[in-house]
Amino acid sequence: MPILNNLMQQLVNGLALGSIYALIALGYTMVYGIIGMINFAYGEIFMFGAYAGLVLALTNYVNVYVALLGATFITMVLGVVIERVAYRPLRRSSRLSALISAIGVSFFLSSLMVRVKGPNTRGFPTLFENRIFEIGDFQITIYQIVIIGVAGLLMLSLHLFVTYSKMGRAMRACAQDQDAASLMGVNIDRVISVTFAIGSGLAGAAGVLAGIYFNAVQPYMGLLAGLKAFAAAVLGGIGSIPGAMIGGLVIGLTEILGVTVNLSEYKDAFAFAILILVLLFKPAGIMGRKANKKV
Amino acid sequence: MKKLLNNWLIQVLLFLSLLGLTAYGSQIINDITSPYVLTIGLFIGINLIMALGLNLITGVTGQLSLGHAAFMSIGAYASAIATVNYHLPFLVGVLIGGLIACFFGIIIGFPTLRLTGDYLAIATLGFAEIVRVQFTNMKITNGAIGFLGIEGSTTFPIVMTIAVQTICAMVWLENSRNGRAMLAIREDEVASSAVGINTTLYKIQAFAIGAFCAGVGGALFAHTTTFIQPTDFGFQKSVDILSIIVLGGLGSIPGTIIGAIVLTAAPEILRPLANYRMIVYGLLLVVIMIFRPYGLMGGVNLRQAVRRAMMFPKKKQAGREE
């Protein structure tokens, strides 16, 4: 059954790639759920995380988990600062102005990185030895296990956090009705800061994972990854956390399957083609609920 | 005076004299200005034409589109193929570029305009990416290597004349029945469909006209740079055009003109900063949005302002007397 084995192999590859997209998509969807804004700078935060991981890894004293944690922490701070400086003053104005501000931030971050680290693609140092496990007839690399494992762990803890913690409940309340939540004593500014911190942290972790997986880090890597993750968030139903996970996995799997059937030149188009098709039949995404419009 | 302006014959005459004046004036500018400044002027004009198209879609009709570069690339490639492979005259090539982009605008518009808000935005973005990947893999466009050997036929007077035509067409359209319907859709889609406006029709109309403008702009672009490749028309390009209209003030034609001038000239003015140029450009976008959240000309309707200055004082006083 060579075809089935090949399929299993591609599923594993797709799962690893999809986990990375899902992590970034979570950031998009959480921010959207709470303040209804598309944070176009997420791709760049992802890139920043990858560089932070790279710099930490190059110090030689650090193992992969410390690099991951360090990068996550740096991007969390970055996310909160960006929200504070570029988005908070625009919270009451039109959503498009916030969008342009986000685009300005993303220009700023990527060109800053070009200035600091140069425009070239950099390899990632080997943080741990790559081993290949053979399960039955298909193989899984230890990188893939780490990526899927870390991503799964992060998503699970996010889920627990949002469902059971006090802050998580405040976040869900803000997503439903910001004014009502603030009347109930929820500190909206804090909730939004925390949302940005978590979302950016996830994107930063995804950046390190992507750096390890593709062994390539460059200042413009955030653009396409960000767009695909955004597509994943919308595909799953923007504002829905499980939707972002499913959307990310679907986009990752489609891309890998596209490569498998020998259409790798079109692999960047696959994600979007699937997205448009799904939206035509289910305009609010896979997990999204159709909002009833009050007239 | 107002009655006189409403006469179509007067309007046509005014339009023609404006065109003549532009052609003549820009010819003079063309002769006395340095090629460097002229090239910047050329790109201001091209960006203005495309931005006016997007302004109709996003600013007037309220449909956020993140795929304007796709229509631009379709126009650019179509016109390049027309003039290089089929040896058609330059202006015919520009027209073909516009028409084919318009055709695709309609085809894309039908299914995607059922979506609203951010879903529409991501669908148009996805469409643009698909178009870019398609151009990268097509033989006739020479794929990723790029389309070479286009004649540099675009001149400053031609661009300026087309830009003025576009401005006039947009002003005229905005004050027509169709334009008012589009504005109504932006303000409240449900309400406007309830009063009998065929929202799908007008949205597709806006999309088609906007795509036409983008196609013409793309054609002019191709015949300026003489070399085009799919990466010229990435997401970045769509964002550039969107920034022009949001920074200028959504839905405002004078705003779009100012936005096109500021954002096209800014990278050139910032050139002495060399490596820090794009960093400052990004900061500039953020700062302008924070201090003018509705754009430079947001909430300012020049036509109304002029009218108010010219005619309104009397009426207002009359109202006070009552």
From TrEMBL, chain A:
**UniProt KW keywords:** Amino-acid transport, Cell inner membrane, Cell membrane, Membrane, Transmembrane, Transmembrane helix, Transport
Q: Which residues cross the membrane?
A: 12-33, 64-86, 98-118, 138-162, 191-214, 269-288
Q: Which InterPro entries match?
A: ABC_transp_permease, BCAA_transport_permease
Per the record, membrane topology reads: Multi-pass membrane protein
Q: Offer one Pfam family short name for this entry.
A: BPD_transp_2
Point out the signal peptide segment: none
Cellular compartment(s): Cell membrane
Q: Does the keyword Glycoprotein apply?
A: no
> To which protein family does this belong?
Belongs to the binding-protein-dependent transport system permease family. LivHM subfamily.
Name used for this protein in its record: Branched-chain amino acid ABC transporter permease
Organism annotation: Desulfosporosinus nitroreducens
